[in-house]
Every structure is written in C-alpha cells, then in structure tokens.
Design goal:
Structural class of chain B: alpha/beta
CATH topology of one domain in chain B: Rossmann fold
Strand order of the largest sheet of chain A: 1-2
Subcellular location (chain A): Cell inner membrane; Cell membrane
Number of helices of chain B: 5
Radius of gyration of chain A: 23 Å
Organism (chain B): Aliishimia ponticola
Shape of chain A: globular
Order of helices and strands of chain A: HHHHHHHEEHHHHHHHHHHHHH
CATH superfamily of chain A: Amino acid/polyamine transporter I
Strand content of chain A: under 5%
CATH class of chain A: Mainly Alpha
Number of domains of chain A: 1
InterPro entries (chain B): Rossmann-like_a/b/a_fold (IPR014729), Universal_stress_UspA (IPR006015), UspA (IPR006016)
Distance between the termini of chain A: 71 Å
CATH class of one domain in chain B: Alpha Beta
Number of strands of chain B: 5
Helix content of chain B: 40-55%
Number of strands of chain A: 2
Low-confidence stretches of chain B: none
Strand content of chain B: 15-25%
Shape of chain B: globular
Number of helices of chain A: 20
CATH architecture of one domain in chain B: 3-Layer(aba) Sandwich
Radius of gyration of chain B: 16 Å
Mean pLDDT of chain B: 87
Largest interface: A-B, 38 and 26 residues
Oligomer: heterodimer
Distance between the termini of chain B: 27 Å
Protein name (chain B): Universal stress protein
Family (chain B): Belongs to the universal stress protein A family.
Largest sheet of chain B: 5 strands, parallel
Strand order of the largest sheet of chain B: 3-2-1-4-5
CATH topology of chain A: Amino acid/polyamine transporter I
Amino acid sequence: MKRSIASTAAFATLALSGAAHAQEAASLDQRVNEIFANSTGWFVNLIFSPLPGTNFPWIVLWLVVAATVFTLYFAFVQFRFFGHAIALVKGDYSDPNDAGEVSHFQALATALSGTVGLGNIAGVAVAVGIGGPGATFWMILAGLLGMASKFTECTLGVKFRNEYEDGTVSGGPMYYISKGFDQLGLPGGKILAVLFAIFCILGALGGGNMFQANQAHAQIANIVGDYPGWITGVIFAAVVFAVIVGGIQSIARVTEKVVPFMGILYVVTALIILLLNADKIGWAIGQIFDGAFTGLGVAGGMVGALIQGFKRAAFSNEAGVGSAAIAHSAVKTNEPITEGFVSLLEPLIDTVVICTMTALVIIISGQLIVDAQTGNYVLNEAGSAIATVDGNSGVALTSAAFAQGFSWFPYILALAVILFAFSTMISWSYYGLKAWTYLFGEGKTKELIFKIIFCIFVVIGAAASLGPVIDFSDAAIFAMAVVNITALYFLMRLVKEELSSYASRLKSGEIKRFEH
Amino acid sequence: MTTLLVGLDGHSSGERALAHAERQAKLIGDCELIVLYVIEWSPFSFHTAEENAQRHKRREEEIAFAQERVLDPALKQLAEAGVKATGKVLHGDVADTINRVAKQSGAEQIVVGRTSDNGFSQKIFGSVTSNLVMSASVPVTVVA
C-alpha cells in the first residue's frame, strides 16, 4: 500500500514536470527547425536556383531533358519492351534452376517499397495543392519519360555490380560510374562516384528519412491531436534502430509483407471513391488538362503547374536519381538488361498509377477551393498555394480528401503512411549505408556510425516543420540526379550495346521462355 | 531401369517414405532412387534490400544445411542397403518441384510421406501432399 502511494506520488510529480516541459518541448521543435533551415538553405538555393531570367528551376529541366534524351536514344524502350517486362516479372524467362535466388519480381518489389510511399500520398498533395490539378498532367508525362531513365540506370546497376566471394552483392551508381568510366577509358569516374555517394548519404538522410518522419508525425498528430514532433521522432528512431542496428529483421519483414497490401488497399479505395464519383471524373480530367496549360489561377500559372508536377514525379519515382539501381542490382540474372526492362515498370506503377489516383481523389473531393465566378482556384493568404477547405496541405490534404469518401479512411491512411514511411526509411538506410561504405570502407564500427547518424536524423525530421524538410529532401535527392545523369550520358552507349544484342537474340529465338 | 523419386521433408514422415522406397527398390531389383528435398520458396515473396543482397549466400547455406542434415544421411542409409541413389536439394513450390523433377527424370513413381500437419493453412490451401496428388503427372504413393 505504502509503496503504491509512493509510486503514485512519483508518477504525479513526473506528470507535473512533464506538463512544465511541454512548453519547452514546443520551443525545442522550433529551435530544431530554425537551425535546420539556416544550415541547409544555401544548398537548397543552389539546387533550385532558376534558369537566368525565369523562375524555372534548372534542376527540373535537367531531369526532364535527361528522361527525354533516354526515351529517344533508346527509341521508346518503355513502350517497345513493356510486354517483355511483364513476362520477365512473371518469371517466364527465369531458369527454374535459379529458384531460391532473387527473382525479378522480388527486386522490383523491394525497389518499389523504397519509392512507393509518402511521395505518392503527401508529395502529390503538395504538387496539386501548389500547382493545381494541371500538375497531374506534367507528373504523368514525367513518369512516362522517367521510365527510360530508370531503365538506363538499373541496367548499369546490374552490369557493374560487385559480387563478393561470400556470395553477397553490392551495386549502384557509385560502382557503375567508377567501373564504367574505367571501361570506356574516361577520366573522372572516381570523383563523380564519390560525389554521388556523398549526395546519396544526404538523400538518405533527407528524402529517405526526415521527410518520412516528418509526414508520419503530421499524420499521427492529425488523428490524436497536436503534440511535439520529437516524441514521434524518438519512437520511430527506436524502431529503426532495432531493425538496422539490432538486426531485428522480423520487424522489417512484417512491414515488407504489410506494405504491398497497404499499397493495394490504397489504390482500391481510391478506385472505389472514383467509381462512386464517376460523374465527376470527366470534369476532373478536364481540370487536369485545362490546368496543365493555363494553370487555372495557381501561383506561377502553367509554369507553376509544370514545375510542381515534374518535381513531385521525380521525387516520387526517383527516376534518374540512381537510388533504385542499388536495390535492383541484387537480382539473379545473366542479362543485366532484363532488370532494366523490369525497372521501367517502377515509375509506371509509382507515378502513372498511384500518384494519379491520389491526384484524382483530391481534385474530385472539392478540397481545393474554386472561385465560382471565374472557375479559377482561390489562393491562400500568402498566395503560395491553393486555399483548401480546412487549410490542409501535404498528407493532411490527401487524408481529408479520402475522408470525404470514407470517414474512417484517415485511420487506415495513417497506418499506411506510418508503414510506408518506415519501409522507405529501411530501404534508404540501406542505400545510404552502401554509399557510406563506398566512401569509408566496410567494417562494423564504420557502419554503426552511419546507422546512428541515420537514427538521429529521424528525430530531427519529425521535429522540424514541413517547409525546410521538404526543401532539403528534394535538394539532396536532386543533387544525386545531377551526378548520376551526368554519368549516364557517358555510359548510355554501353546500355545501347546491351539492348541491341539482347533484342536481336530475343528475336532470333536464342533467348527463350523456360518451361515451368 | 526403373526410377523412383522420394520426397523427404526432414521429418519422420519423410523417413517412412524413404524406408518404403528402399523396400520397393529391392523388390524391383534394377532400380534407382532419386532422393529430393525441396526448400519452400516463392519468387513472389517480399524481402528487404539487405536480404536481397545476401540472398545468394543464404541460398548456398540453406542447400548445404539440408544436404548435411537430411540428404546425406538418407543417401548413406541407401548406400548401406545396397540401393543405387542420387540426391538433390532444390528451392521452389514443393509439390510443383517434385512433379517437375519426376517428369524430367522419367520417374515411374513418386513416394512421399503423409504429413501430419493439420494447421489452418492446410485447411485452406491443402497440404503439400494433397497438392502433389492432385497435380502429379506420374503415380504417387503416399506412405502413412
């Protein structure tokens, strides 16, 4: 009895001091935010600086030009080999004697779990919220073109991967840049590879980590009420720590199994909402096309819509960024190009299917406020984005839009966001680690240092506010694309050799389906 | 020469199947056994990037482990009994893989043990044995 009174008293004291700390905690969030914004601002400005005399960020043009160049150079490979890609994923061309090795499906699913996630839910809401429905059009276009970028980098990822004696494999842009340049006798491969690895670590900490933690927190706070972000951060960091440092793969395995079902549930729910509002689909598609070329009153007009669409597509499917090449390189195949074909499905599923679903649901929901007289969208007070019914942006906007179809959906979405965020973090912790070990060499202590840094950034990401986090995340991921695409231009002829050799052998029947 | 295929599962049911096949082989005389152990594996399962990177290594380990624990003792037992036999460890869907190897090797018959699993998934999807019986393209003997 005495003990329980004592412990109650102790608990009460704790609760009181907790309340006193709450205010301090809120300002802690602010301080984290301030320091973060100040220390990353220059980097963000550099990456997003506009082309001289315009407000068009050069980086967006960089990505789209690359995707277009690859599309033309490989003569629309994403459409010509689309059917073949599906057959490869189904395993039609897999040797039954390779059973037990990483299949095309598994490599694709793993890469997808790193890209499908918040970009599709929160990122699209940001794009449509700022750029209007028209951003969707540019997003889809960027997704279709991006398939060729993905094809190029993933083929190289497999071609130049490292296969170690103990049977493990490592691949990715750091390896294909340095080895590929050596093979072609080009100078500077090593420098580019190191640069890529540095940006990949920043990208892993930004888009692959802080953005995820940030939006997961926003989603939880949206349901249980506002509370300091660092609390979510600490909990997330603890779970991530348990998986990547503690080696508790069972947690990761559970998420890897649940995530695909969440993805399917998300798309099915979106489809049901669209079917229930079938009468508005025509209008929504009209809005997408009108907005794409006029902007419908959004900040920046047509160019604003275009920038947002392209930016979000690149951030969501990561085509040209080089990250997926790391995940795809583990596949079992003797033909590197087969993984290239498989990987081109990634931007299609990620951007053209899932992102478009999100965008349509948001547009149909009427969350974006339209001026009844002009038919244009009404801007918020700051004039930076379209005004929404409850002032929502990012993932909260998607949540509100889905809630109009199904009031219970925000709970499912919160769970999906948390799981997507978590699986993306696990994937990116691996990408970041590969870049880290490329720079510093392999070894238990060196790897542990990176993993601890990674966990610390989970807390920072959850505590900082969306603006600076999303800016830094984008900047870091696009910096990867600057290096990667530069290298791809030099290396793309190696992919072309593979493509023509494979295509002719496929045509002659030398490469054939296996009996299963 | 007659070829019989025996499916092992690392449990007592597999041992009973092996004993039955051994007796039959002796009765037939000019007979060879193929002893098969299949590690359940689907190319459509989900893994983390790290697991994928280590997959080849794990696969080798799994095969070595099954070879040592299940296959080698079985082959030793058959050799001592004077029965000609070869062994294989494969990954895949168990019923499909046993059937595929039976077809490829021209086996007259498949011998497997009846599994005693009665779990939930067996109720829904059927046991490996019943799936094999339903899909096999050669006669199957199920040893109780």
